[in-house]
Amino acid sequence: MNAPHVLITGGNRGIGAAIAHALAADGWRVTLAGRSIEALESTRTTLPGDGHAVVQMDVASADSITRAFADARTAQGPLHALVNNAGVVETGPTQRFALASWERMLDVNLTGVFLCCQAALADLRETQGRIVNIASTAAQKGYAFTAAYSAAKHGVVGFTRSLALELAPAGIAVNAVCPGYTDTDIVRGGMAQIMDKKGKSEAEALQSFTQANPMQRLVRPDEVAEVVRWLCRQAPAAITGQSISISGGEVM
Ligand code: NDP
């Protein structure tokens, strides 16, 4: 049998790139999906093993998703797993939060997950595949000034639970992982804002993220990737509809 095929959205950097490395090392053929072919290509060339591909996809566009899944299937055959990783964060006081930002949070972080699952389902039914959604601890608890992102990520967990029940008779497992603050551009961007707007030092800005984690550190992308790797292949099929917190004990 050919190596199994997985599509990862937002696979060019951060947690998505770490997941791509872990799955490629585990023998998967990886399709990296995202907005910039150049950025995806530069990650693809670093992956271990052969047979990896890239497809252009904006998860905020239904047409783009339809095209990208068709391209991935034509190039690499049916999918055995889908990892919905692409995401963006915008924060701010709810009273002044722009409707356009609210809609972007829902479009990218929630509706994109629904549309990608829909586009993958014909394949996953054929392969009895797996879906892993990258949610967040913001799907398990609230954070001040993060209402839109948190609403979208809570939505991802509700969607995961319901889809898991819908697909259980077909033998398709659907799970979510919920990282706490993880060492990627999202947190580095947040630190830059805190340093800029509040005049904090880099160490103080970092601490405002690490203090949420009982281990007093950021989660590493490879720690998230390891759980996704397990859910994609080795987790017992009976594990479905779960939301696994990867947060040093912040959520339990
Ligand atoms: P990064 O900012 O490093 O990466 C985000 C990825 O999503 C990039 O590949 C980006 O592509 C892609 N992306 C954003 N918007 C779109 C879009 N419209 N279409 C396609 N791809 C898009 O963040 P992380 O690696 O940290 O985040 C990955 C996931 O993990 C997200 O869902 C995030 O919400 C979640 N998460 C992150 C945490 C953290 O603390 N870092 C904590 C909990 C959850 P591009 O390069 O084109 O911008």
Total number of domains? 2
Mean pLDDT across every amino acid position: 97
Estimate the global geometry from the Cα principal axes: globular
User: What is the highest CATH level, the class of the largest domain?
Assistant: Alpha Beta
Could you please say which CATH topology of the largest domain applies here? Rossmann fold
SSE run = EHEHEHEHEHEHHHE
> How much helical structure, as a percent, in the residues?
40-55%
Give the class from helix and strand content and strand pairing: alpha/beta
Corresponding CATH superfamily of the largest domain: NAD(P)-binding Rossmann-like Domain
Strand content: 5-15%
Radius of gyration: 18 Å
The appropriate CATH architecture of the largest domain is 3-Layer(aba) Sandwich
Number of helices, counting only DSSP H or I runs of 4 residues or more = 8
The small molecules bound here are: NADPH dihydro-nicotinamide-adenine-dinucleotide phosphate
- Please outline the major beta sheet: 7 strands, parallel
How widely separated are the two ends? 40 Å
**Strand tally:** 7
Biggest sheet: strand arrangement = 3-2-1-4-5-6-7
Pfam families: adh_short
Protein name: SDR family NAD(P)-dependent oxidoreductase
InterPro entries: KR_dom, NAD(P)-bd_dom_sf, Sc_DH/Rdtase_CS, SDR, SDR_fam
Domain Ketoreductase: 4-180
